[in-house]
């Protein structure tokens, strides 16, 4: 019998690929002044699974989410890569090739892919009741009468755990607590029954108790509906609780990818190890914060030579790591972009 150490027993389920991101690259600025914020990001979102994306502030987590959805802030632009919806099927579409303001991509955003933000007011307007906003979201994608959409909205609010939804439907966002507002944000994201959800730090703005409730809600909805969830966080406790697979990002690249149990049991990248250092026992400290790592994340415009983590790395190999970049993690495979990890793999194979 395998001892259940993680809190996500569904991790063994696996599902088909819903979205495959390949070699995504994003730059901010123009010409010689441009800065590469994402450099060769590849990710797979699978039905019924949670992909955790973790890393320190500024490593490119939000830019990844926004690039996938075609909602990059100016002056950001995609300079390479593909975002394949339904990859490998006859319905495959490359979202990166669509006009970000066009009808096709708008139909995907909010239709196939739901979005949950850190601050629900990003998605909600202060001027309309929560009910009217969800009703509009439903009717933007589906032909439904106003009465039918209102009934569906009450059901959605009930599903996300809002008490007395028949009354709350007519509340304005400012009349609700932060926790209830985030529940409305989740209801909004689910309005068109998406099969993919992207949640960018959905609980960071909430107190610890509310965080736990919202994460439990997200996990339940994701499992019940078989949704592929991409969960962005800087909190390894959230990763342990929620993720099936984990992508660790550093300075616009994925430096390690692994199933969650393997990542915690045997992290291969020194950066991952540094992130985990403050979480010695995940069972004892389920909500522990990231370790503080010496130094700060450099600006993408001042990317260190060789391995970008080398100036902060305690395991740096002099004469190698500062001159040569280790190979990237191959798309869809577990591994780490580090010379130490490469030698570990070679030793294991020999
Ligand atoms: N609007 C912008 N203009 C210029 N550069 C930007 C802009 N947005 C992001 N960037 C660049 O992209 C990098 C990654 O930003 P991003 O917001 O994705 O970080 P993050 O990992 O989400 O961090 P956090 O944990 O703080 O949310 C930033 O360090 C910055 O250099
Ligand atoms: Mg962010």
Describe the structure.
- The protein is an alpha/beta fold.
- The chain has a domain at 122-193.
- It has eleven helices and eleven strands.
- The chain has a seven-stranded mixed beta sheet, with helices on both faces. A four-stranded antiparallel beta sheet has the order 2-1-4-5, covered by helices on one side.
- Strand 4 and strand 5 (93-94) form a beta hairpin.
- Helix 6 runs parallel beside helix 7 (208-225).
- The longest helix has 18 residues, at 208-225.
- The model is unreliable at 1-13 and 346-350 (pLDDT under 50).
- Bound molecules: adenosine-5'-triphosphate and magnesium ion.
- The site of adenosine-5'-triphosphate has 15 residues, from helix 1.
- The site of magnesium ion (MG) has 3 residues, from helix 1.
- Helix content estimate: 25-40%
Mean residue pLDDT? 89
Which regions contain 5 or more consecutive residues with pLDDT less than 50?
1-13, 346-350
Number of strands: 11
Elements, N to C (H/E)? EEEHEEHEHHHHEHEHEEHHEH
Query: Into which percentage range does the β-strand content fall?
Result: 15-25%
The SS-based structural class is alpha/beta
Give the biggest beta sheet. 7 strands, mixed
Overall shape: it is globular
């Amino acid at each position: 019998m395998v001892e259940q150490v993680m809190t996500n027993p569904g991790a063994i389920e696996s599902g088909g690929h819903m979205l495959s991101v390949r070699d995504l690259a994003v730059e901010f600025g123009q010409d010689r002044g441009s800065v590469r914020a994402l450099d060769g990001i590849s990710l797979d979102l699978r039905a019924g699974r949670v992909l955790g994306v973790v890393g320190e502030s500024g490593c490119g987590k939000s830019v990844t989410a926004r690039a996938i959805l075609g909602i990059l802030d100016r002056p950001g632009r995609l300079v390479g890569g593909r975002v394949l919806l339904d990859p490998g099927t006859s319905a495959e579409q490359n979202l990166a090739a669509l006009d970000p303001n066009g009808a096709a991509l708008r139909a995907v955003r909010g239709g196939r892919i739901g979005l949950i933000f850190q601050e629900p007011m990003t998605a909600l307007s202060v001027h309309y009741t929560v009910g009217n906003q969800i009703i509009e979201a439903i009717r933007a994608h589906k032909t439904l009468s106003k009465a039918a959409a209102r009934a569906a909205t009450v059901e959605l609010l009930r599903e996300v755990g809002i008490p007395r939804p028949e009354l709350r439907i007519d509340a304005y966002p400012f009349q609700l607590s932060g926790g209830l507002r985030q529940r409305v944000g989740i209801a909004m994201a689910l309005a068109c029954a998406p099969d993919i959800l992207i949640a960018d730090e959905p609980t960071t703005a909430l107190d610890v108790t509310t965080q736990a409730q919202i994460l439990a809600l997200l996990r339940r909805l994701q499992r019940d509906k078989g949704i592929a969830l991409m969960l962005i966080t800087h909190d390894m406790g959230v990763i342990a609780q929620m993720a099936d697979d984990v992508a660790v990002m550093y300075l616009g690249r994925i430096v390690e990818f692994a199933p969650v149990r393997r990542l915690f049991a045997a992290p291969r990248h020194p950066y991952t190890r540094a992130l985990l250092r403050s979480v010695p026992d995940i069972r004892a400290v389920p909500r522990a914060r990231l370790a503080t790592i010496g130094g700060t994340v450099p600006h993408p415009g001042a990317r260190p030579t060789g391995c970008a983590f080398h100036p902060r790395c305690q395991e740096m190999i002099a004469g190698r790591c500062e001159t040569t970049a280790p190979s990237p993690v191959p798309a869809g495979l577990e591994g780490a972009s580090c010379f130490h990890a490469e030698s570990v793999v070679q030793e294991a194979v020999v």
